[in-house]
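REQUEST ID: PR-0412
SUBMITTED BY: lab tech R.K.
PRIORITY: routine
TASK: structure prediction, single protein chain
INPUT:
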Amino acid sequence: MIQALVATLMWALVASLLIFRRKRADRSITYASFTIAVAMTLNVDAIYLVTDPLLGGTNVTTLVSDGLLMTGIFFLGRGVMKADEYRPRLVRVAVGIPVLLTSLLAITTTFVFIDRGTTTTRFMIDLGAQPAAAAYSIINFSYFFLVITTMMILAARQYLRSSGIQRLPSALLSLGSAFGGGLCLAVLIMDVAHVTGHLDLMRAVQRAYEPLSLLAFLFLCAGFAAQPVVRRAQHDMRRKRTVGLATQLEPLWKRASLVRPGLSQADPLAASADDLESRLHREIVEIRDAMIDPRVTFDISAAERALLNRAESHLLGLDTRATRTTASPGGRVGQEGSS
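STATUS: complete
OUTPUT:
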């Protein structure tokens, strides 16, 4: 049941990423989500029982699924790393190709030595007492723990460096990574307990497996899905603020244009084709040009100057309050002169 829920979550994430991130150049998260979705789908009992006999009926589907999951986690870690400028050597190593290839080779090698019997949907429960099976699972989840812990560190750092609604994705990713790390530790304890014969400990820890698994995937999916949603919401908010500032500046800009015609008057067709931020930028520049042109007299009030500074701060992405206290009256976004 838990595998079906997780697979459903992953396919929902894939769909949302294809919709909201289709124009982004970096597809690491999309590749990761798709690969993990396939891996989790193969782990659904009904699908496992159909696919494994096609591969020989010796639980090779487990190896295929775990290999895909490992690859997906790799892409996931790479995607989180690329979203941050903080990339120390240890982080690059943890989500590097050599570690991935070494881990894939290690699980493939240990898998060969497992006495796998016939198809079973309870692979580690049935076979986990074998040292080779324990080693196989330990390698798997040690790699997962390494990458997920790295993701948690990066996500926590992004949370501390962001503010407002920008914190939502990194907060969700941090929680998901924390639950994922807990899941990995639980599995590692179960593996050691099983192979050493401490079955009571294994069963006690096993109770945490499904809740941790569901919570990890739930928060990770929510975090990655929230990134493009938050980005779009911020874009819409910025667009509305740009429109508002341009509208407020328009009377001042028209006054400036009367005393000192700018490019907008020289080529009104080109000016009308500008996007919203270009329009606001042009208004600011032409107002500033009128203010400093010694050939004309153009005075503005303190309120108009404050509005102009706010518009400049908006275009530059600066904190409005800080800009109001530090920006000089003569500061400008850019300089364009028209003769």
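NOTES: The chain has a mean pLDDT of 84.
REVIEWED BY: pending
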